[in-house]
Amino acid sequence: MRTKLFSFCLSAIAALLILCLMPAWAGTMGLLRFNLTEPAVIGASALPPGEYSACLLDTGSDTPVMKLESDAGFSLLIPVMRATLRSEEPSVTLTRQDGTLHVTDFQFSGESYRYAVLTR
User: What pTM was computed for the model?
Assistant: First the structure.
């Protein structure tokens, strides 16, 4: 009896460890990695320079949501909208407005649309 209980406990601990160590991208669609060499703005949020990952979350909502996460731990959820396709290559569009660099849209690999950041 003790052996079975011990085995069950070990299995439960292993399952919890797997869940805790699972990548943050579970339940997502597409992944895009990019580097910002200078500070930028996305929507109303400032982004410090660094390496970033962007992915679309599978929320079941009519409004797609993108998760943006830096390797330094910065994380942001952003409502996005589908926009017309410009190319098949994954990309991030940066636009300079009034001296400030803005992240405006994302093209994910394998997607038939690009995703534009909704602004207020």
Answer: 0.67
